[in-house]
Amino acid sequence: MLKKIFIKTFGCQMNEYDSNRIIDTVKKIGFEKTDNYEDANCYLLNTCHIRDKAKEKVYHEIGRVKKIFRSKKKPIVVVAGCVAQAENQEMLKREPYIDIVIGPQSYHKINQTIQGYIDKKKKQEETEFDTISKFNYLSKIKNKHSKVSSFLTIQEGCDKFCHFCVVPYTRGPEYSRPFDQIINEAKEIIKDGAKEIILLGQNVNAYNYKGGNKEFRLSDLLLELENFKELKRIRYTTSHPKDMTNDLIEIYKVSNKLMPLVHLPVQSGSNKILKLMNRKHTIEEYLKIYKKLKEINSKIEFSSDFIIGYPEENEEDFKYTMELIEKIKFINSYSFIFSPRPGTVAASLELVDAKKSKKRLETIQQKLSQNQIKKNKSLEGKTLNVLVENKMKDGIKLFGRTEYMTSVIFDGNTDNIGKIVQIEITSSNQNSLFGVLKDNYKKKVA
């Protein structure tokens, strides 16, 4: 009998990749994906521990599931991902409605865990760090979730131990997948229609795999992917400034497919705060990377992440962050008020006054928004290369992205999906560009 699984994914792109691989895996025990949660025999939450109140959001979601299935047969409820890893047995004790807790390095065991629950009706918990077995197992199951723009995890875990971050505790130490394993998966998703691959890792540019007598870095992967004719664009995220090595920077000189947007989280513009965060880089080192890349290609743009109101941040520290934003003019960034994560060094530090933090966040977000709006406004009237990804929900317009990941919405034929087309930009807002296919535009004004 065919069973149905509904997966709700929180957080990062890696979780999205993991959710897709879980779907590929559970097909082997008779489950198929459903987008209608009310039909689910198994309800899985793939959780993220980066944002504030992540744990409570999970329990809130479980409460919602309870209401949905109040008058229906209860599905198997699985909590997966980083919150599952961090809380493990505690979740099973606190919420009896949860049946299975499974961490992100145990997904190769998900079939036996679900089947074990079905057979014995005994709650299951799998949260061991077993990354090698996980990827060896998943490499034998075809990735059937290729899109025009597809994610591909190449590295997991982190050895940096930034004082605010839970990743080393929820994803484990840095692990780089075997080079050939990654290339083989890339071949499959390109064969299935991917025109863009986004390489993923908690520290993606820390990728370092020793195979035989050779050491493979991210730069080697990028060069290898460059050879695939059907692949048009390559990206990678998320990077750490400490791992922005010269061999990686030099790739921007020779690659025709590596996109000119560098997402490089800085977190703060103050060296004092960076040291307190244990970030292992300085602003001077960050600016040196920026300068090197700009000298290679002046069209390269940067995006970043900022934590505002980190313990001991004062007005001078915040001023340095504002100065850095003015200097680099990030075209797209994420900024959040610091919130402590249990188990991290920063969890026990005294918080900056909440009103001050909120005011600083509003100031910085206003500045970042202005940069973004100004950049998008400057593109009006220009013709851009856009990779068309899909049809919008309205069923009329098409959605694509520029080389800088900016969303572009326009009228077009579904035949354009998967192609790079030229779009004349006619208007913009903070987050998106709007335009028309260049050929259509010429016909209209003729």
UniProtKB/TrEMBL annotation:
Segments forming domain TRAM: 377-439
Binding positions for [4Fe-4S] cluster 1 per the UniProt entry: C12, C48, C82
Residue stretches making up the MTTase N-terminal domain: 3-119
Main location: cytoplasm
Cofactor binding: number and manner: Binds 2 [4Fe-4S] clusters. One cluster is coordinated with 3 cysteines and an exchangeable S-adenosyl-L-methionine.
Catalyzed reactions per annotation: N(6)-dimethylallyladenosine(37) in tRNA + (sulfur carrier)-SH + AH2 + 2 S-adenosyl-L-methionine = 2-methylsulfanyl-N(6)-dimethylallyladenosine(37) in tRNA + (sulfur carrier)-H + 5'-deoxyadenosine + L-methionine + A + S-adenosyl-L-homocysteine + 2 H(+)
Xref: SUPFAM superfamilies: Radical SAM enzymes
Location relative to the cell: Cytoplasm
Domain Radical SAM core: 144-374
CDD domains the UniProt entry points to: Radical_SAM
Enzyme Commission number(s) of this protein: 2.8.4.3
Cofactor(s) needed: [4Fe-4S] cluster
Keywords carried by this UniProt record: 4Fe-4S, Cytoplasm, Iron, Iron-sulfur, Metal-binding, S-adenosyl-L-methionine, Transferase, tRNA processing
Residues at which [4Fe-4S] cluster 2 binds: C158, C162, C165
Subunit structure: Monomer.
UniProt function note: Catalyzes the methylthiolation of N6-(dimethylallyl)adenosine (i(6)A), leading to the formation of 2-methylthio-N6-(dimethylallyl)adenosine (ms(2)i(6)A) at position 37 in tRNAs that read codons beginning with uridine.
PANTHER family for the chain: CDK5 REGULATORY SUBUNIT-ASSOCIATED PROTEIN 1, MITOCHONDRIAL TRNA METHYLTHIOTRANSFERASE CDK5RAP1
Family per record: Belongs to the methylthiotransferase family. MiaB subfamily.
Family matches, as HAMAP family: tRNA_metthiotr_MiaB
NCBIfam families listed in its UniProt record: miaB-methiolase, MiaB/RimO family radical SAM methylthiotransferase
Name of the protein this chain belongs to: tRNA-2-methylthio-N(6)-dimethylallyladenosine synthase
Organism: Pelagibacter ubique
Gene name as annotated: miaB
